[in-house]
Amino acid sequence: MLLSPLLETKTECDPNLCEDLITTVFNASLHVNNKKQLAENPVVIPLLIEYTLLGTIETRRNAAATFGSLSALDSNKFIIVNSGAVAPLLELLREGHPSAVKDAASTILSLCTVCANKAKFVEQGAVEVILEKINDGIFVDELLVILAMLSTNRMAIEELGDCKTLQSLLRIIRHSSSECSKENCAAILYNVCLKYLTLLMVIRAEEIKKQTCKTCRYWDYKSSKEGH
Known about the structure:
Blueprint: H1 15-29, H2 32-40, H3 44-51, H4 57-70, H5 74-82, H6 86-95, H7 98-111, H8 115-123, H9 126-135, H10 140-150, H11 154-160, H12 163-175, H13 179-195, H14 199-210, H15 217-226
Helix pairs in contact: 1-4, 2-5, 3-4, 4-7, 6-7, 7-10, 9-10, 10-13, 12-13, 13-15
Protein name: Germin-like protein subfamily 1 member 18
Keywords: Repeat, Ubl conjugation pathway
Organism: Hibiscus syriacus (Rose of Sharon)
């Protein structure tokens, strides 16, 4: 069996061999006919979870990328998250290695297209981790896409509903050259303000001074539609 060496005690498995084997699993997962079989194999997902946390950074990012590849099937998204992949993916994101962050973020975005999965990521601290990376200037554009998706979740809105986060998002709108990032910030602000109407006062003050949100088509459209 291809994965037999990975079933050995982790200290006995050569790191380079582990990297090669996880990479092979990733390559196999790219073929559409293998996705269901791999995800439903009782060995594969638990091993990928372990190797998202263990081994070389290349091993870990390839494990995360394999989850992303397998998540192309909606049924696999449930299997991956329900098997315990949320915490390892968030840990990989938290550690901040550039190449690993990209793979972890892409996989998280794919998994969070399922509403139940979105809630599980929020419950396990995704909002805090993502905000930390955004404030550090790491993969801001990519992570704002995930944060905008999570901002429809009630618990996520509660975490996002503070003035510090609000000012951080407004700052991105003012200074970012990415229209996509501006629109995602506006979407997050809009979702938060639907629950915390008092934050609209902060935004109105911002508009009087700097007209920040006026530059966002999303905010302008939603606000005019809702009469804010």
